[in-house]
């Protein structure tokens, strides 16, 4: 096979089709056009959850890198969930100390991005099907059992119920989705009196809170 044919084959393997809010991925990687919304529109206060892939694009290693990649002027801050205190650490990149709280990005960890102006952010990368994540129970690494999970893009779980089942239903208290319009979380428990209530669809690009009863090491089921 000549060089031109090899390059063509690689481009076909990596091919993706993007439409607003839609992911169409190959088995090697993907691109996602993900909406990050400003205050007063879809997002009440400008807070948006963001799930980055396990293997991020080159140079996307810190909160500063992420703000710059989205568009620094459009972002108020990037927030990391601190499980030990059940609080968020915010990086602003601005005076009086622009380097304060410039945390490293971690595979499997979701983030809150607070926007000034709306941006359609192109997420690029791939998942690592061999990578596992530890979801911690209350009283240890996690104060209340909340863990902020970056939903995998090639994950077979498509609903909150399927995600709970994939982690291990008995180990999970609930799965929570952030509602930008109200700045609140919607919880699915899968339990009585209405086990089907709030069984929301999982969306590529969104982060979810997984509240645990017992600690579990989770390797997502992939397609």
Structure explained in plain terms:
It is built from three helices and 13 strands, in the order αβββαββββββαββββ. The model is unreliable at 1-20 (pLDDT under 50). The longest helix is centred in the first third of the chain and has 12 residues, at 3-14. The strands form four sheets. It has a four-stranded antiparallel β-sheet, covered by helices on one side. The radius of gyration is 18 Å and the shape is globular. The chain is of the alpha+beta class and 223 residues long. The chain folds into two domains: 3-126, no CATH class; 133-218, no CATH class. β10 and β11 form a beta hairpin.
* Beta-strand content: 25-35%
Q: Estimate the global geometry from the Cα principal axes.
A: globular
- What's the total count of β strands? 13
List low-confidence stretches: 1-20
Order of the strands making up the biggest sheet: 2-6-4-5
Number of domains: 2
Structural class: alpha+beta
Largest sheet: 4 strands, antiparallel
User: Count the helices. How many?
Assistant: 3
The Rg value, from CA coordinates, equals 18 Å
Mean of pLDDT:
90
- N-to-C terminal Cα separation, in Å? 29 Å
Helix content: 10-25%
* Oligomeric state of the chains in view: single chain
- Listing every helix as H and every strand as E from the N terminus to the C terminus, the arrangement reads HEEEHEEEEEEHEEEE
């Amino acid at each position: 096979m000549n060089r031109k044919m090899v390059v063509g084959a690689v481009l076909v393997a990596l091919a993706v089709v993007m439409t607003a809010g839609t992911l169409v991925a190959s088995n090697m990687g993907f691109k996602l056009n993900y909406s990050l919304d400003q205050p007063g529109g879809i997002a009440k206060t400008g807070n948006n959850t963001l799930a980055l892939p396990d293997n991020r694009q080159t140079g996307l290693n810190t909160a500063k890198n992420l703000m710059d990649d989205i568009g620094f002027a459009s972002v108020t801050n990037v927030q990391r969930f601190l499980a030990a205190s059940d609080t968020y650490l915010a990086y602003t990149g601005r005076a009086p100390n622009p380097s304060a709280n410039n945390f490293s990005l971690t595979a499997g960890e979701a983030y809150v991005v607070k926007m000034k102006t709306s941006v359609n952010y192109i997420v690029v990368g791939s998942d690592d099907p061999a990578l596992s994540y530890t979801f911690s129970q209350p009283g240890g690494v996690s104060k209340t059992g909340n863990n902020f999970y970056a939903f995998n893009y090639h994950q077979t779980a498509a609903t909150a119920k399927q995600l709970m089942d994939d982690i291990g239903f008995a180990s999970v208290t609930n799965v929570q989705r952030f509602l930008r319009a109200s700045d609140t979380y919607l919880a699915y428990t899968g339990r009585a009196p209405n086990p089907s209530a709030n069984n929301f669809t999982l969306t590529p690009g969104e982060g979810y809170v997984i509240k645990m009863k017992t600690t579990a090491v989770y390797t997502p089921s992939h397609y």
